[in-house]
Amino acid sequence: MRATTGTIMRRDFIGDKVRDATYLTAAALLLGIAAPWRLAAQHAMADAPPTAAAGRDTTPMAGMSMAVSMTGPLGLPMSRDGSGTSWLPDAAPMHANHFTAGSWELMLHYLAFGYYDRQGGADPAKRGDDQIGSVNWVMLMASHGLAGGRLQLRGMFSAEPWTVGRRGYPLLLQSGESYHGQPLHDRQHPHDLFMELAANYERAIAPNLGIQLYVAPVGEPASGPPAFPHRPSAGNDPMAPLSHHWQDATHISFGVISAGIFTRMWKLEGSVFNGREPDEDRTDIDFRRLDSYAGRITVNPAAAWSLSGSYAYLASPEVLFPGVSQHRLTASVLNDRGIGTRGRWSSALIWGANKESGDAGLSNSALLESNADLDTRNSVFGRIEYVQKSARDLAVTDTFVPDRIFDIGSVSAGYVRELTELAGGSVGIGVQLSLDLVPGSLEPVYGTRSPSGVSVFFRLRPREMRIGLQ
Ligand SMILES: [Cu+2]
């Protein structure tokens, strides 16, 4: 008893110290954003339309700094950087602002939606609800040469604990994480204030061989495809995929160490990490032992393509079910290409499966999503999903045994029209419609076999940087 208390107190004490250090790091990063902010406007490269990009930076110095910042070790383009240590296709569009502070290269990424979301006719008896809110994140990356390679510091933050609320936003058939000690269902949890606090180091050790080390108090292990907030194929969709917790939900893990080796075409990496998902206090950092592990192979055979496969073991991911651990398998194919004279078309095909301890088989999920920026003003997007969710996931255990599996289908589509540009960013107005399909056994719960949702929104993101790749 005494020993237990001592352990807890000691852990709390260490936790406080680490938390203080984390807040300091975050404050420093935010100051870093604020201080060189004025430089962003001067550094007009971020706003350059493709035809003007070549002629924009006229001084040799500006051209040189651009060349340094836009490629990493082995000459890999920055457009390849996905979330965590994942890869996107080289041809992926980069929505970011670039600037410099002394000898540091800085990249600012952000995405924000202000929405009115209405699910299931907003009838609570049918699990519907509506909400006005905002999903959002901002990310600052600072890069500097170090010991023959590149050191990158990253801070990624979200205001969703306040703008979405701890209960999350309405999203029929969504599951994962908790609120008030109960599993969340039919709502998407908010992302945490600290989405990523990480240091990433990469360097070449041979003409076509590089090594990578990623250390993150908050970060993403080598599991799954690039997480949906970073996927160009999901960039105009305010809603999270229903298969998030089968594919890419580990993107906020409180304690990650990853190491990898890579060439220009492939990367092999492994992680140890804390597999516990964020708890319902969305502003703290929930450290635990690095008791989970993951491995991933990624292949980028051509500029338009990125393929990955991963396996992860998640020790006790859900705080409400501490005895349950998970094996997660994923495979993904990402494609990015130009359409028309100025358009971009990004697509993702993802499979993800979980096997929980005690379960005989896998619960599967499949997702196909696409976003087409047709020109500089109009974008269309869509997503098709199939997920196998349990009675426990959907919180229908009063009627069904917890392990009962339901086949869930969902189709959604939307449109965004750019309205105006401001400070290197673009504001668009959009709409997203979704139509789900549930088995007959769930009809009494949802009042229909085809629940639906609609959201209307404003979206703010940086304008696209177009350098080199077309
Ligand atoms: Cu997430």
Q: What report would you give on this structure?
A:
The protein is mainly beta. It folds into two domains: 1-29; 36-465, Porin, CATH 2.40.160. It is built from seven helices and 21 strands. A 16-stranded antiparallel barrel has the order 3-4-5-8-9-10-11-12-13-14-15-16-17-18-19-20. Strands 1-21 form a two-stranded antiparallel sheet. It has a two-stranded antiparallel sheet with strand order 6-7. Strand 15 and strand 16 (363-373) form a beta hairpin. Mean pLDDT is 86; it is low at 1-19 and 24-69. Copper (II) ion binds at residues 191, 244, 249, 251.
Helical proportion, percent range: 10-25%
CATH topology of the largest domain: Porin
Q: End-to-end distance, in Å? A: 64 Å
The CATH architecture of the largest domain can be given as Beta Barrel
Total number of helices: 7
Give the SSE order as H and E letters.
HHHHEEEEEHEEEEHEEEEEEEEEEHEE
Mean pLDDT: 86
Number of domains: 2
Strand content: over 45%
CATH homologous superfamily designation of the largest domain: Porin
Low-confidence stretches: 1-19, 24-69
Strand segment count: 21
| Biggest sheet architecture | 16 strands, antiparallel, barrel
Basic shape: globular
How is the largest sheet built, in terms of strand order?
Answer: 3-4-5-8-9-10-11-12-13-14-15-16-17-18-19-20
| Bound small molecules, deduplicated | copper (II) ion
- Based on CA atoms alone, the radius of gyration comes out at 22 Å
